[in-house]
Amino acid sequence: MKTQKLKGLEIIPPKEESGKFETPINMPKGHNTCCAVGVRNTGKSVAIVNIIEKMGYDYVILVSPTMSSNKEIMSRLNVEHIFEDPDDLTIIDKIKDIVKKEAEELERYHEELKNYNKLMKDLKEGKFMSDDILLQYFGEDSFVKPEHRWNGRKPFIACFFDDLLGSGIFSKPRKLNALTTYHRHLGQLKEGGSIGISLYFAIQKFKCVCGGLNPTIRNNLTNLLIFKTKNERELEDISESVSGECGVETFNKVYNYAIGDGQNYEFLFIDLFKKKEHPSMFRKYLNEFIIPEELNKN
Predict the structure, then answer these.
(1) Tell me, what DSSP letter sits at residue 28?
(2) Residue 149: how many CA atoms within 13 Å on its side-chain side?
(3) Separation of alpha carbons 163 and 269, rounded Å
(4) Cα(275)–Cα(65) distance, rounded to whole angstroms?
(5) CA 104 → CA 90, 97, 126, 190, 197, distances in Å?
(6) How far, CA to CA in Å, does 79 sit from each of 22, 87, 158, 286?
(7) Who contacts 204 (Cβ-Cβ below 8 Å, separation ≥6)?
(8) Positive or negative torsion for Cα 104, 192, 21, 178
(9) Could you tell me where the DSSP H helices lie in 125-231?
(10) Which helix (H) or strand (E) holds 278?
(11) Cα separations in angstroms, 156 against 63, 66, 99, 159
(12) Residue 277 phi, psi (nearest 5)
């Protein structure tokens, strides 16, 4: 076909993506929105805990009424905030406040560090300093440099929603929808960018009449873990959700390979926004890429 380019109308992307974090080379991009789907006792929580561990988050916010019964596996995570009442709709606001405070602490630190460095420079040059300014940074016997929990960097935070099917948070999803839509932009910084937060969901049904993941959340997923299911309709729903990346035939092929007989907690991992260096969006567990011939034409 014939084309004609126009000068000066190129699209210029931003230099830094809001809420973006570097992650280990073989792990998904961060921040991400991840969902594990499977019936009870298939290993959803175990799989998500392993992913969170390997992603390298600084800490986790856990929303789950079953924390105590899952204490052994959850103890592997650095859980700093626990919310156990899934019908408390203020939980979403509290999560947002946690991220907002991280942004405020980071900005406070950078401002105090700037003032401290100026003070040290002025003292070195012999400039007069008032007692009020000196006392701001003077400890018992010396000047104290401002401190920040994360040494001046943005903390990498995850939130794990576990065992919440039919809960108030899912049944009245307005706030959860907003959190899922804007998760990368939470904790906005005056200098630009944001802290953001990754979201993880463990559910028994991909679609549910009451209290399941609604379309807003499903459409914002970046990663999907699928465990063994005999529900053909559910597989059709999932295959439709990734149809823009592969056909139904390809999906069924990789699903059957990944799941096998389903006796060892196998799952199909789908990365809908994979890194360029990853050879495929599909994996068995996390440690085996599945590369269908039809998606490996190059």
Answers:
(1) P
(2) 12
(3) 20
(4) 34
(5) 21, 10, 33, 10, 15
(6) 21, 20, 9, 23
(7) 37, 38, 39, 40, 165
(8) positive
(9) 131-136, 168-171, 174-182, 215-218
(10) none
(11) 17, 24, 10, 11
(12) -80, -10
Note the Cα 68 to chain centre separation in Å: 23
Note the residue count of the chain. Answer: 298
Which three-class secondary structure state does DSSP give residue 80?
Answer: strand
The phi and psi torsions of 200 (rounded to 5 degrees) equal -130, 135
Give the pair of three-digit tokens for residue 140: 């018992």
Tokens of 268: 């199909």
Taking the C-alpha atoms of 41, 181, 32 and 59 in order, what is their torsion angle to the nearest 10 degrees?
-80
Residue located via tokens 């973006």:
20
CA angle 47, 49, 54 (to 5 degrees): 95
Q: How far is Cα 222 from Cα 9, in angstroms, rounded to an integer?
A: 30
Q: Is the Cβ–Cβ distance between 69 and 62 less than 8 Å?
A: no
CB atoms within 10 A of CB 272: 16
* Low-confidence residues in the chain, pLDDT < 70: 15-19, 208-212, 243-244, 295-298
The encoded tokens of residue 123 equal: 């003292």
pLDDT tens string 235-262: 888 887 776 677 788 888 999 999 987 7
End-to-end CA distance of the chain: 23
- The model's pLDDT over 200-212, given as tens digits with 9 standing for 90+, comes to 999 888 876 565 6
How far is Cα 109 from Cα 98, in angstroms, rounded to an integer? 17
The identity of residue 69, as a single letter, is S
Q: Give a three-class secondary structure readout of 34-57.
A: EEEECCCCCCHHHHHHHHHHHHCC
Peptide linkage before 110 cis (omega within 30 of 0):
no
Residue for token digits 């203020």? Answer: 90
